[in-house]
Amino acid sequence: MPRNFGQVSRRRFVAGAAGSGAAIVAPAVFTGARAADELKMATFFPLSGPAALFGPTGTACTRLAVDEINAAGGIGGRKVTIVPADGGAPPAEAAKAAIRLMLRDKVELVVGSHNSAVREAIVAALKGKIPYVYTPLYEGGECNPNVYVTADTPQQQVQPSITWLARTLGAKTYYLIGNDYVWPRKTNEQAKKYIAEAGGSVVGEEYVPLGAPNKFEDAVTRIKAKNPDLVVITLVGGDNVNFNRTFAGFGLDKSIKRISYLLEELTLLGIGDKSSNGLYSAMSYFVNEKSEANAKFKASFAKAFAPKPPPLSMLGVDSYSGVYCAKALIEKAGGTGDAGRLMAASNALRYRTATGTAVMTNRHVVKDMFLAECKGTSFEIVETFKAVAHGQACS
Amino acid sequence: MDPILTTNILNVVYEVSTLAVVVLGLAVVFGLLNVMNLAHGEFVMIGAYCAFFVQTQDLPFLAAVPLALLVCGFIGLVVERILVRPLYARPFDTLLATWGLSMLLREAVEAIYGRGFRSVATPLTGSVDVLGAGYPAYRLLLTAVSIALVAGLVWWFVQSATGRRIRAVVNNPELAGSVGIPVTALARNTFVFGCCLAALAGVMLAPLLPVNPTLGLDFILKSFFVLVVGGLGSLVGLISGAGVIGGVESVVSAVSDRTWGYSTVLVIAILFLWLRPNGLFPRT
Amino acid sequence: MTGAANGEVFSFAGVTGGYGATTVVRGVHGAIAAGEACCVLGRNGVGKTTLMRLLTGHLLLRSGTVRLAGQPLDGLAPDERHRLGLVYCPQDRPVFDNLSVRDNLTLMGPIDAGRHAPLLAAFPVLEARMAQSSGTLSGGERKLLSFVRGIAEPGRLLLLDEPSEGVQQENVERMAGFLREAKAAGRALLVVEQNLAFARDIADRVIVMDRGEVVLAGSAAEIDEDTLAAHLQV
Question: Is C78 an 8 Å CB contact of chain B?
Answer without folding.
Answer: yes
